[in-house]
Every structure is written in C-alpha cells, then in structure tokens.
Amino acid sequence: MGFKKSLIAVTATAAIAASAVPALALENEFHGMFRLFSAVSNFNNSETAAGFYDPYGIRKDPQTATYFEQRARLMYIAKANDDLKLVTHFEIDSRWGDAAYTNSRNRGGAIGADTVNLETKSVYLDFNIPGSGVNAKVGIQPYADVFKGVLFDADMAGLQVSRSFGNLDAGAGFFRFDDNSTGSVPGKRARDMFAATGKYAVTKDIKVGGAYYFIDDDRSAQDAYVAGSLFQLIGFADTSTLHNVGVNAEATFGPVTVDGFFVYQFGTLRAPVDRHISAFAGNVGARAKVGPGTARTEFLYVSGAKNANSSTFNGFQSVADENGYYGGNMQLLFRDAYAMTTDNALVYTPNNMDQGVVAGFVGYDLPITSKLSASANAGFAAVAKKWQTLGSADPDNKYLGTELNATVEYKLYDNMSVLGRGAYVILGSYYDGVAAGGENPDDPYMASLILNYAF
Q1: Most buried residue among 218, 231, 399, 433 by CB atoms closer than 10 A?
Q2: Measured distance CA(450)–CA(445) in Å, rounded
Q3: Where are the beta strands (DSSP E) in 183-321?
C-alpha cells in the first residue's frame, strides 16, 4: 500500500512540474535542393576547386576533363511563432570517384563512400524586436552587397537589423570576417565590416537606394594572404581601411526594366608602402519583353591598377573570392551560377587580379511550352588596366575573350528540371603567346548536363 501511495505522489509531482513548463509548439520547416552537375570541358582549371583560368606555360591543348559533381543542401527552420525562428542550413558536396572512408569537405564520392562530409552554411536567429518594428538576424548568415555582388556575397558571422519606415527600407549590420588572434587578445587581429543600407520607393515603379560598407582590417601581412586580389600580392602590414559608398536604382517603364549601381571605394592600404586607394565599379542593365520571350543586357566596369607601387591605387578591392557577378549569365567568362566545387572562370572575381574589368552581355530567354524553355547569351570582357607581369607581353593586349552559350531546360516535375548547356569562349589577345613554346592556348569550351531538384 505504501508503494502505491509513493507512486501516486511521484506521478502527481511530475504532472505539476510538467504543467509549470510553458508549452513550445514549434512549426518545423524543411527546405533544400539536390543538384548533379556533369561536364565535358577543356577548361584547364577543371581539375582545381576554384580560381582563375590559367593557361600560362602549359600545353596549348589541355586534356579534356570529364567529371560528375553532386550537391545536397538541407535547411531546417524551427519556427516558434511569426516573430521568432531559428534558421540552419547545411551542405554536402562530392565528386564521383574522389575519395572514401575519410573526414573531409567536398569528398565521399568514391566506392564505399562512408565519409564525414557535412558543411555548415548558416546558423542564425531571426526575430522581431517587440514594439519596435525592427527585425534582427544574429549568427552565421548569408549577406550580399547591394551592388550585384561585386564587393561581397557570402555566408558570414554577424548581426544585421532592418526596419521599414513607410516607403523607406533601412538596415545596418556588423560582421566579423576573420579573427586571427591566436595567442593574443581576441579581436585585435580581426577583419570587421560595418554596413548601412537604405532603399526608397519613389513610386511603385521607381526605387532608389544606397549603401555604405566600412571594412577595417587589423590582420598582419601573413594573415591577409588570400587569393584573387591585391591581398594575395602584397598583404597588409598594419591596419588597412576600405570605405565603400554607392547608390543603386531600378525603374520600370512599361515592358522595360532598367537597373544599375555605382560604388566608390577609398581608404588606406598599408603594404608594401602606405597608399591611398581610389577605385570604383559601375553597372547598368535592362530587361524587356520582346516577342514571346525576354531580352536582357548588362554592362559592367570595375577599375583596375597598372602596378602596386603608385601612391594612389586604383584597383577595386573585392573581398577575396567571397563575391561574384552573375548578371551576364556566363558559364566560363565569369563564374557560373550553377557551378559547385569546381568553380573557375576567366574573370573569377570582379577585382580580376587588380586589373579590373570592362564587360558587356546580351541574352534572351524563351519559354517554348509550359515545361520546355531555352536561353542564349553572349558576352565579352577585357581588363580595365593591364599589369605588365600578367597576360601577353604586349601591354596593349587587354581583350580577354568573347563567350557564346546556350541552355535548354525541361521540367520533369514542377520542382525538378534537367538542363542541357553548352559554352564556348573565343580567347582574346590578352592570352597571345602565353602557352608553352609561346603558342596561343586553345579556346575553352564546356558541355554540361544538370539535374536540379529543389523543395
């Protein structure tokens, strides 16, 4: 009898304790994608993970590469209510046949698989601050500039807040790119960014905006060694500062939409000597309904520098390779929006090894049936300023090349498509005589077949 009384007492206590804890009814959201990218290409960087096209000193006719890459992205959102949610985003990459039984990112496609390969893209809290109208995102999150990605477009750790004031949307943020303070005080050898943005709807068809991004880099010269920009060539000795201020706009006039941006960059670079930086980037684009499809055009200019030692440096500083301009729908000339682990291009970053770029693009998108569509694009690119140590020996040879590409897409289901694509680049005089024996490298090409599923 005593045992029964004790059991009843324990059960009652547990019930009281459970009732004292507030119930948390979560809405669980799952999203993601799977992509298989198969390609045949003579693009000689196809064997590398990422980088600039590099035909220097190798045979003029590089070996043909064939590869199959797959990527899965999984997003889980724990939503407490309309004002509070946790967002997590993960990625699993591999190339068929690469490795097995190992612990490494971008591996696990060899026979046997069994590889620990799970990358964290985003983990952040998204919530509205009560009574303020302010939304906050805190943690590792995706964040891009308002200049079509020419400065940065990446996942990064930080805090951003935003609020609407009628027709005005305003935002601000702090992000820490790097903290190389091992053995010293945290934050003393860091690279931080402060951001302020705004967009105003003049009418429903006209929007204007602006942004200011301040990047403060306190890393040493050794720590600042990163690919694809001036940082790779000279690094930093002490604090370097970059101020980026610019405007953007979009306007619709009947069937035509025009948009663009201009961003000016100034500040101080500390190595090899103290120098002032004065650089800029600008863009204008348009799209319009033409016939049964949509026509597109884009123009991009990013300033470059001729050498590293001028007192005023004009090479626009993108944030390493954590950026990308995809407005031209290129596959080889600029970075491919569908590229995964193998991600390379003639113009891999808008900084373009401090030479900048002048580029133009045209394209046409044609819906054929409810399931079948096609797209064709053409683009050209040249360096804005040529370094004498890069490209052909002739300093006047600035033309990088012209790309022609096409895509046909067929929807097997509403959220699953098969894409067949082809791209060919006619190399410009910039690459004259740079292959082995002073020969001209063969023109790059790529044929690809993509299976894409999103949910």
Answers
A1: 231
A2: 16
A3: 190-201, 206-217, 240-253, 256-269, 275-290, 293-302, 312-313
Q: Tell me the per-residue pLDDT of 57-74, one tens digit each, with 9 for 90 and over.
A: 989 998 899 999 999 999
Q: Output the CA angle 212-134-23, nearest 5 degrees.
A: 140
Look at the block and give the residue holding tokens 């941006």. 261
| Residue 58 CA to its chain's centroid (Å) | 29
Q: What is the DSSP string of 346-394?
A: SB-STTTTTT-EEEEEEEEEEE-SSSEEEEEEEEEEE-SS--TTSSSS-
Helix, coil or strand: residue 433: coil
Written as six digits, the tokens of 237 are: 């000795």
229-258 tens-digit pLDDT? 444 333 334 578 999 999 999 999 999 999
Q: Which two tokens stand for residue 425?
A: 């680049």
Q: What is the pLDDT of residues 378-408, one digit of tens each?
A: 999 999 999 878 888 888 899 999 999 999 9
Distance (Å, rounded) from C-alpha 310 to C-alpha 273? 9
CB 243 within 8 Å of CB 225:
no
Cα–Cα distance between 246 and 426 in angstroms, integer?
34
> Residues 174, 196: contact at Cβ < 8 Å?
no
Half-sphere exposure of 409 (CA within 13 A, CB side): 19
Q: Distances from the Cα of 168 to the Cαs of 163, 164, 165, 171, 369, in angstroms?
A: 8, 6, 5, 10, 39
Q: With contact defined as beta carbons under 8 Å apart, do 249 and 207 qualify?
A: yes
3-state secondary structure of 232: helix
**AA identity, residue 307:** N
Say if residues 264 and 384 touch (Cβ distance below 8 Å).
no
Cα–Cα dist 231/234, whole Å: 6
Q: Within 10 Å of residue 393's Cβ, how many Cβ atoms?
A: 10
Q: Round to whole Å and give the CA distance between 168 and 162.
A: 11
CA-CA distance, 328 to 321, in Å (whole number)? Answer: 18
Pairing label, strands 399-413, 153-165 = unpaired
Q: State the virtual CA torsion across 134, 149, 341, 224 in degrees, nearest 10.
A: -90
10-residue stretch averages of pLDDT, the chain, 455 residues long: 46 46 73 97 72 91 93 98 97 96 94 96 98 97 97 97 97 95 80 97 97 91 46 49 97 97 93 84 98 98 86 91 93 96 94 96 98 98 91 90 98 97 98 94 97 97
Q: What backbone torsions phi and psi does residue 23 show, to the nearest 5 degrees?
A: -70, 140
Measured CA to CA, the distance from residue 397 to residue 355 in angstroms comes to: 13
CB 386 within 8 A of CB 356: no
